[in-house]
Amino acid sequence: MDFINAIVLLLNYIFVPALSYGSQLALGAIFVSLIYGILRFAYFTAGDLMSFGTMFTILFTWYFQSLGFSLGVLPTALIAIPFGVIITIFYVLVKDKLIFSYYRFKKSPPVMLAMVSIGTMFVTQAIVRIIIGPFDRRFFDGEKFILKANEFKEMTGLNEGLTIKSTQVITLLITIVVVSILFWFLNKTKTGKSMRAYSDNEDLALLSGIDPKKVVMITWIIAAILATVGGTLYGLDKSFKPFTYFNNMLPIFAAAIVGGIGNPFGAFLGGYVIAFSEILVTYAYRKFFIYLLPESIEPDSLLQLLSTDYKFAVSFSILVVVLLFRPSGIFKGKVL
Amino acid sequence: MRQNLDVIIAYAIMLLLIVLVGLLQSWNIALSILCFCLISAVMTMGANIQWGYAGLINFGIMGYTALGGLAAVLVSVPPVNEAWQVGGLSIVLCAFLIALMIFSIRFIIKKYKKSKKRNYGIAFIIVFGLIFLRLISGPAIESIEDVNPATSGFLGGMGLPILFSWIVGAFFAGALAYVIGKIALGLRADYLAIATLLISEIVIAVIKHEDWLSRGVKNVIGLKRPVPYEIDLQNKEWFIDLVTKFNQGTLNLITDALEKEQMIKQLVIEGSTVFVKLCFAGLFSVVVIILLIITQKALYSPWGRMMRAIRDNEEAANAMGKNVVKQHLLIFVLGSAIVGIAGAMMVTYDGLFTPGSYRPMRYTFLIWVMVIVGGSGNNFGAVLGGFAVWFLWIEAAPIALYLINFFTSGLAETNEFRIHLIESIPYFRFLMMGVGLLLIMRYRPKGILPEKIKNL
Fold it and tell me: Do B187 and A327 touch (CB under 8 A)?
């Protein structure tokens, strides 16, 4: 019995939260990785693009709520996501046309494009803050829990409860759907294959008649979709605050690099690597060992490897270690 | 003279703008803008050395700034004797232990060839070292933080004049840059950017949460100043005389003796803040001018030419027998050290150290906007960028307010759209920065004052 209690404890405090956080990071990391592979620069606007998409989703959610429309147990935001996606796609395409395409035609070095993306980061951040303000917004409605701790305890008769929030399940389901469609698209369709070819070898791809404009456009569209969906899921699960989204850019980059930048599947796994390591290292294992060990050698300290203050620092340290020993990432991306 | 005309014009305009602020708003605001412009100029010079001379991207400016600030605390705050008594010994022991670990790992790496056994040995040292560190430091840190937690709760510093910290800050930042450079300089440009950005976040996390060292988010306030305090000035005979002399014209107009005294009192209070800021501005100008002379000399020395050669063609420079790796590391350390000076200067000016306020937007990306806008590779350009961008950053709010009022003048005062816009004025500065950066990168990619290369 104690053993099962210990397992449930880990499930509740580590596995479930890390899985949903990892999914949200993974969605971000995939599009950063795609942009790096195809457009060949580090896209510093990543976090703010997510907040941009989320902002419009929230605005549409509020609009639907004011119309008295709701999905019952599901959050209204799910209906609003497609509208947010459309506006974000429009935004990134306009941005590409006005700003990035110029440098692409001039064949500027990647550093230049990264700097330009810092400029767009400032602009996007300003737009988000001017429209919706810098404050914390909660836009979740519908049923909050799928499984409450008390219900679980009654059901199983265990000491430890397992809480599953509906947002965690929604996050996981949507991530699975979106990511599988994406990988099907990249691996099976002609456009997806041409994108991969373009990423692998630009000159060869151009020689074989791939239209670079189309490839770039599709990349931006995928980026906008992933950014909006990932951002909205994060906002539903926690809350929406532009500053947090900007900060999320850092673990997203860490995930993309750990997974091997330019390799979308690696980035997907990288998101989970980052999320799990952040939570595993900062969790206090005391209770876990109290269940497992006999009473005589019970630990009296917290058994925490690092305090939760260092959550971000953990993922960055992993990144540094990966950069040092395996610069192409765990799952072999581009060798830089 | 002719060829430096653009530099002179640009600086004249900049000074004119600051004077205008002084005349239109107040001299107090103008001087505080000037002080921060000078601090920003030092930071941009540091970034410019790395980016403009050698083409290294360093997005870790925030980390070095914070380390410079930490140096200001550690140098100027008097030591907390009680804390040293309860935990000082263990902390010193920990420092020795860390040094021992580093040296033994170095020794193993040098002495033995690459093998599984060696890796296990290193891992063994690290794991056991960390456990020992935790065992020794844990209780010590707890007891240090328990010493008067409301006012101190940390080890304190050395109680020296705060001006020393400007040099110490440079050493701190340089030492960190050496470690980071050893780790990350082999990476390609954008990887280096991301890696330094993330490492600077780690540095901030440590400063924020190691309360025994820096008091963390509880902040250190009331740092000593290298210039006189306002209160002292207001009671000094010579200062009051000086203020009356300056305002003789206006004072002569007032006939009533009591009113005159009131007026003088008011003027002295205003004058004292302005005087303090003038002193700061003077100190900062000295630093900026010294750095400008040194960097300018370096740029046109054989060493500067070598750096440009390395930047423009690494392989060719390597083939000419220049040690690219070593030079990169050197310039990385030098640039970061200059940023460290700026960090210490800033904390000196503010008189307080707030680790929670270090954010990448303000301390990394804004500095990069300054470098790009000003002109990378040109020291005068970098300084100008620091001035212009900081000026815009502060004056963005009044400008935005004016523009909003101008464009929405057709709408009623109570119009919701207008109120919303006026409420979000602080964020227009981001918009201006972004648009400014994008415009400069598009139409003047080398910055306002582009790099000039003297042909020999």
Answer: yes
**Is residue A76 in some structural domain?**
yes
Question: How many C-beta atoms surround the C-beta of residue A138 within 10 A?
Answer: 12
Q: How far is CA B44 from the centre of its chain?
A: 9
CATH assignment of the domain containing A89:
1.10.3470
Q: Given a cut of 80, is residue B151 above it in pLDDT?
A: no
Chain A residues inside the 8 Å CB shell of B423? 133
Question: What pLDDT score does A336 carry?
Answer: 35
In angstroms, rounded to a whole number, what is the distance separating the alpha carbons of residues B254 and B242? 18
Domain boundaries, chain B: 5-79+156-443, 80-155
Single-letter residue type at A108: S
Q: Which of B183, B369, B430 sits opposite A324 (nearest CB)?
A: B183
What is the pLDDT, as a whole number, of residue B456?
Answer: 55
Measure Cα distances from B223 to A291, A324, B155 in Å. 50, 40, 15
Angle, to 10 degrees, between the axis of helix A16-38 and the axis of helix A190-200? 70
The tokens describing A238, both together, are 């926690």
Q: What are phi and psi of A39, to 5 degrees?
A: -90, -15
Distance CA B156, CA A140 (A): 46
Measured CA to CA in angstroms, residue B185 lies from A185, A278, B200 at distances of 37, 26, 15
Please say if the pLDDT value at position A335 is more than 70: no
A276 found inside a domain: yes
pLDDT at B348 exceeding the cut of 90 = yes
Total domain count for chain A?
1
Instruction: Please give the residue that has the higher pLDDT: either B261 or A302.
Output: B261
Tell me the angle at which helices A242-258 and A16-38 cross, rounded to the nearest 10 degrees: 70
Amino acid identity, position A265: F
Q: Does domain B5-79+156-443 have CATH number 1.10.3470?
A: yes
Chain B nearest CA to A101, separation (Å)? 11
CA pair distance A153, A147, nearest whole angstrom:
10
Task: Please check whether residue A330 lies inside any domain of the structure.
Answer: no
Q: Give how far B267 is from chain A: nearest CA, Å.
A: 40
**pTM for this structure?**
0.90
* Close Cβ partners of B353 (under 8 Å, ≥ 6 residues apart): B69, B70, B72, B73, B214, B215, B219, B220, B221, B223, B347
Residue type for position B269: I
- Region of residue A315 (left: phi > 0; alpha: psi -120 to 50; beta: else): alpha
A246 CB neighbours in chain B (<8 A) are 361
Residue A40 region by backbone torsions, left for phi larger than 0, else alpha for psi between -120 and 50, else beta: left
Structural domain boundaries enclosing A267? 2-325
List chain B residues with CB under 8 Å of A329: none
The pLDDT score that the predictor gives to residue A321 is 80
CA angle A267, A268, A273 (to 5 degrees): 85
- With a cut of 0.95, is the ipTM above it? no
Instruction: Please name every residue paired with B220 in a beta bridge, in sequence order, or none if there are none.
Output: B353
**Half-sphere exposure in the Cβ direction for A113 (13 Å, CA):** 22
In a domain, A305, yes or no: yes
Residue of B313, B339, B227 whose CA lies nearest to B274: B227
List the structure tokens of A17: 């939260």
Query: What are the distances in angstroms from CA B169 to CA A156, A169, B292, B347, B360?
Result: 59, 49, 19, 11, 19
